[in-house]
């Protein structure tokens, strides 16, 4: 879409000012480039002219800065994992408020959100026949418990919905169903196979219960395992009966499935003490680098402060919290106050409810028309590749991806030069239908799902240099978006020209 014919006179005045700026830059002596109404290659040039020096300073300051690492150390080692409703999540929320105040940020505070409190309790799975063998497992968040004596039952293995259906009406009656659906290996072009595999973790209990099962298990959602079970969220939906639901290691699934394929009857004993303690208070944490010209317009950057109750929540989503926190600290220390406000938001309860994200979009509904972009970091703190963007309007989304390509062309020194349309992040997703350009910090994904939701998601899996490069990418992205005239996805000619 080209809006160049609609430029009001007041904006033409502003463009004349822009011409002066450009003439004073590298194009001195030549004619000021006419607004072409296009967001092609010249946008990258314009951004470089106007912001190149600031971007160089941001990158240099981010790459020699260990502030994000120091914050991550505290979050991972002093606080540890932090499931919704836990005392450790309350400590993490209190710590992040104090840390943002210490860094000198504005409007730092906690915004109350009610969150579910699910408590794992003791749990185990053992194969009791044809021989005794404990199997590594983790109950899935939201699951009910077994009776105190546990559930001992034969297992039936299915790989997908079709095989479950083939069991017939009561084909799983009195049995434990094991969903042995393999997650494909990571592919740099197509990404992980998480999206196509996770459905059995989320919906397996409902599917199995409908066939008369007494409990259900899933193969951990990972393509690579060192006998590490992966937890995660599950839902009963409209299930008539709630049955216990847990993940076992891929090694455990291979053992059980290998035996059943060779005609052995396998009996398991499952024991889970999980309980639901209802809803309790929690909070989203916010802090700002206030804008110098249009402080009521906002670029949101953030991650989720909660984690599963295993490991340290280092990549999921400790890095996603400290990257935006440090990004505005870098800008503040450099004295770079952009035209718009950059607001850090650390959402609560992403993992088992998305309560914080929904509450943020609800409480800040009036601000959404003035939210020019919302970036989430929730894919781990690995080597940054660039940004993804997700918008309700496909045409705007395609334009936004093109504009982002121009923005990330400034990030060659950190290797984050890619942009794509597609998934942004769970916590920013409630803003997408309201027209907010929602974005994700896009990082290398080859290792993320090896650690995801496990006891192995710990600080040692984070590379300090990759973390610094993520800070640089987030800081530069947020800074440019907070400086530009229009919102991402709008033509940058005329009234919404990116300057
Ligand atoms: Zn996450």
What does this structure look like?
With 499 residues, this protein is α/β, with parallel strands linked by helices. It folds into 2 domains: 54-115 and 278-496, Aminopeptidase; 121-273, Glucose Oxidase, domain 1 (3-Layer(bba) Sandwich). Helices cover 33% and strands 22% of the residues. The protein has 13 helices and 16 strands. An 8-stranded mixed β-sheet has the order 1-10-12-11-13-16-14-15, with helices on both faces. Mean pLDDT is 91; it is low at 1-38 and 494-499. It binds zinc ion. Zinc ion is lined by residues 304, 316-317, 350, 378.
Q: How are the secondary structure elements laid out?
A:
Layout: H1 9-23, H2 41-63, H3 67-79, H4 87-102, E1 106-119, E2 123-129, E3 133-135, E4 137-139, E5 151-158, H5 161-165, E6 176-179, H6 194-197, H7 199-209, E7 215-219, E8 245-248, H8 250-261, E9 267-272, E10 275-289, E11 294-304, H9 314-333, E12 340-347, H10 355-363, E13 371-376, E14 384-390, H11 394-408, E15 418-421, E16 438-443, H12 448-451, H13 464-483
Parallel strand pairs: 5-6, 6-7, 7-8, 11-12, 11-13, 13-16, 14-15
Antiparallel strand pairs: 1-10, 2-3, 2-9, 4-8, 5-9, 10-12, 14-16
